[in-house]
Structure prediction request, 469 residues.
Amino acid sequence: MRRHVPLVLAALLALVATALLAYQWLGQPTTLRVAVGPAGSEDARLVAAVAQSLARTHEEVRLRPVATGGVAESASLAERGKADLAVVRSDVGIPANTQTVAILHRNAVLLLATDPSLAAVPDLRGRRIGIVRNPSGNTRLLATILEHYDIPADAVTVVPLGDGREAGEALRAHQVDAVMVVSPLTGRTAGDVVASIAKGDGNKGNGNKGNGNKGDGNRGDGISAGGTPNFIPIGEAAVLARRWPALESVEIARGTFGGTPPRPAEAVTTIGVSHRLVAQAHLSDSVVSELTRLLFVNRPGLAVEVPLANQIEAPDTSKSASLPVHPGAQAYYEGEVESFFERYGDWFYLIVMCVSILGSAAAGLVSRAANRSRARDMALLRQLLAIVRASRDVEDEGELADLERQADEILAAALARAGAGAIDNAGVAAFTLGLDQARRAIAERRAVLLERQAQGLDRGPDPLSAAAE
Prediction:
């Protein structure tokens, strides 16, 4: 039995080492690649702030931003499996292999002009429209809006504009007749556009009055003095949202952009899109649940650095939602996140069952080994008993010597087993007793044979035998 002790200890150490390695592996944070862009955008700043917050607090889920050129490229990376997460826009196209984790913010479509004659979307026919940022995605969105009003896409001229501060200058210089921007209503971009257009309000009436062009926007120098931003409503926003589920109806409240008089002067209806954080559908539910929880737990702290974080919200989790929600995120929203033991309970049960089976098998093997060892010991003891019995009937010294040699061989085998730890103290005592009995029986029989031989020599030759000779 003693020789099995090192094996058992080795098995126990192996189990402990495996458990430690498993704990170390499970304790490693899960790092998810998130595609977001363009660099410097509000989305990129928000994701960077989330990633820094998770790293700073040593959470078990981390983010590694992957910069892209915009939401279209981010969606492409997610679709090709090059990113675990992506920030996409609902109208640009959400990859089929992804599901929503959270809505980061909602963007409203602002159509702005300074010409009072541009009071509705149909008035834009034949006009030049400046697109602020993301010209490709916003141009497609503009085409969708115009299509609803039976205006061909080529009936307007699209002029790309860089940043929001260029909008007012472009309008005043008559480079464009209206401006379109898609941005959160409280975001920096929308505020910059409205402020740049309103900047010219105080210059009214300061043109060259001697040219006879009173009342028009061109006062001799070809540059308009500016005017109050005119918010062009999209009155059929609700219909557009039903027609294209990626869109939604949004109301721009009176005075959203401040000012005196307030901008806008009255509530304006328009359409909106949502910027969503989506995850690969194959991502673990537990990982996505934890990420979702961390987003909302850290939202107040993130809002201090990036005010846009205040707009993070839960998506529609109903079964009729047009954009599916990841099961892990849905579990968090519905309060059904599984605990550690609920999540891995079945594995624990299987592990315990396997360990029990292995333990039983090991115990059986040890028992069989012990039985075989005991059987070998009993066989040696039976040989000793056989030597004891055989020595009583031996009539020849040569046979006694052979029995003695057998006893010596049994002694050598017993000593070898005792040295290997296969025989315990009781077994050694039994062998010692058996060997003593065998040697005593051999010695006694040898003495008897010697005595008989001596008696035969003392008698001399038989008289009858001599007479016969």
